[in-house]
Amino acid sequence: MQTSTIFLALLILTVVSFILGLRRSHTVSVGHGGVKSLHSLPRHYGYMTALWAGLPALLMLFFWVVFEDKVLYSLVIANLPDSVKAMQESQLGLYYNQVVSFATGNIESTQLNEDQIAAAAYYNSLLSTGNFIKGGLVFAIAIFGASLALQRIRPAFRARNNVETIIKWILFACSFIAVLTTAGIVLSVLFEAMRFFQSIPITDFLFGLEWSPQMAIRADQVGSSGSFGFVPLFVGTLLITAVAMFIAVPVGLMSAIYMSEYATARFRTISKPILEILAGVPTVVYGFFAALTVAPFIRNLGESIGLSVSSESALAAGLVMGIMIIPFVMSLSDDIINAVPDTMREASLGLGATMNETIRKVLLPAALPGIVGGILLAVSRAIGETMIVVMAAGLSAKLTINPLEAVTTVTVQIVTLLVGDQEFDSPKTLAAFALGLVLFFVTLMLNIIALYIVRKYREQYE
Question: Worst-scoring range by mean pLDDT, 96-110, 298-312, 327-341?
Answer without folding.
Answer: 96-110
